[in-house]
């Protein structure tokens, strides 16, 4: 499910201080994309179209050969058909390339192990960009490598991987948003935002990226768990009175937590959010696919993070706590045998 600031229409070049000539300077170092699922493939395709040197990290057996042979093909709400020249199988292989930017497009539950591997690659000046779903991923990067190294994107498209390098985009509501943990990274963030825009993926640099993350993630955190547990689409869950009641209660809890964290989204947020969700509601949330595929979900950085932040601020989140526990129970079933033993 995508998100972002659904009514604020920002020109991607508004307020930018860098020129395309400065963007071309990014060619002096590679841009690495780690995780070539749906999100990573779309981001990589845009950067390749922008004529940057892009290296993909694809550890799954056989994926490197497919990408080099067939390139990346994206259809639906976005369209790309680009060749792929550079693919490596291990994060450690990036060390010799010295990438200036490293975009992380893995599942959030892989974040810590990815950062562990980046320890051997990282050099001062490298920018690590979280493109994940979830709350607080940029803070995890900042804690490991310093605030000056951490950037965050809030993506506003919904995509599904059909096969290696082949992606269907259900919707794109531009622009995406990109920002830095440290305000001193504005120019570098603007460079990356402009490069993505030049590549056909409209992206705006924003001063307070956490605001945009909250605006998206209140929707994502709420609907992901409800849809995963019930199997409903976003639209169906909002139109069915019992699940709509749960969603409304979750929205209230998440808004209180966001406010306690310093982000009061205003009285009209919920009206705007629901209108936005109605537009993308036929899209199945990625957590639904995780559950149907019997794989691990990103619940810890979604509903689980709302619960965690609520506890930090002394706020009760009974609906979120219940939904998070239910998703975790479903995950637990996946690793149990038929006899109920691990």
Overall geometric form: globular
Oligomer: single chain
Strands, count: 12
Main beta-sheet annotation: 8 strands, mixed
Number of domain units: 2
Segments where pLDDT lies below 50 for 5+ residues?
1-16, 337-342
Task: From the 3D structure, determine the CATH topology of the largest domain.
Answer: Rossmann fold
Number of helices: 13
The radius of gyration computed from the alpha-carbon positions, rounded to a whole number of angstroms, is 19 Å
The level 1 CATH classification of the largest domain is Alpha Beta
Coarse structural class: alpha/beta
What's the helix-strand series? HEHEHEEEEHEHEEEEHEHHHHHHH
**What percent of the residues sit in helical stretches (DSSP H or I)?**
40-55%
Major beta sheet, strand line-up: 5-2-1-6-7-8-11-12
Strand proportion: 15-25%
Task: Give the distance, in angstroms, between the N- and C-terminal Cα atoms.
Answer: 32 Å
Based on the coordinates given, report the CATH architecture of the largest domain.
Answer: 3-Layer(aba) Sandwich
CATH H-level superfamily title of the largest domain: NAD(P)-binding Rossmann-like Domain
Which whole number gives the mean pLDDT?
Answer: 90
């Amino acid at each position: 499910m995508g998100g972002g600031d659904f009514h604020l229409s920002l020109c991607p070049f508004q307020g930018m201080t860098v020129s395309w000539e400065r963007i071309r300077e990014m060619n002096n170092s590679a841009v690495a994309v780690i995780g070539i699922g749906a999100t990573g493939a779309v981001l990589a395709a845009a950067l390749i179209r922008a004529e940057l040197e892009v290296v993909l990290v694809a550890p799954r057996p056989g994926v490197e050969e497919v990408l080099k042979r067939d390139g990346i093909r994206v259809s639906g709400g976005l369209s790309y058909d680009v060749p792929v020249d550079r693919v490596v199988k291990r994060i450690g292989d990036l060390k010799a390339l010295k990438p200036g930017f490293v975009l992380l497009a893995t599942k959030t539950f892989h974040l810590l192990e990815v950062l562990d591997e980046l320890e051997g690659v990282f050099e001062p000046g490298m920018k690590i960009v979280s493109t994940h779903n979830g709350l607080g991923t940029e803070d995890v990067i900042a804690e490991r490598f310093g605030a000056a190294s951490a950037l965050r994107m809030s993506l506003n498209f919904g995509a599904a991987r059909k096969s290696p390098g082949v992606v269907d985009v259900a919707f794109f509501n531009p622009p995406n948003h990109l920002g830095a943990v440290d305000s001193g990274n504005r120019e570098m963030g603007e460079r990356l935002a402009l490069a993505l825009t030049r590549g056909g993926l409209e992206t705006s640099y924003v001063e307070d990226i956490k605001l945009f993350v909250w605006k998206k993630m209140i929707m994502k955190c709420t609907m992901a768990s409800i849809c995963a547990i019930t199997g409903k689409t976003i639209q169906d869950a909002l139109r069915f009175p019992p699940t709509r009641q749960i969603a409304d209660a979750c929205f209230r809890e998440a808004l209180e937590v966001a406010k306690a964290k310093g982000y009061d989204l205003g009285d009209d947020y919920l009206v705007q959010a629901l209108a936005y969700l109605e537009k993308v509601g036929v899209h199945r949330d990625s957590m639904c696919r995780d559950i149907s595929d019997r794989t691990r979900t990103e619940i810890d950085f979604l509903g689980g993070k709302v619960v965690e932040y609520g506890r930090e601020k002394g706020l009760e989140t009974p609906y979120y706590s219940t939904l998070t526990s239910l998703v975790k129970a479903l995950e637990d079933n996946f690793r149990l045998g038929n006899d109920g033993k691990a």
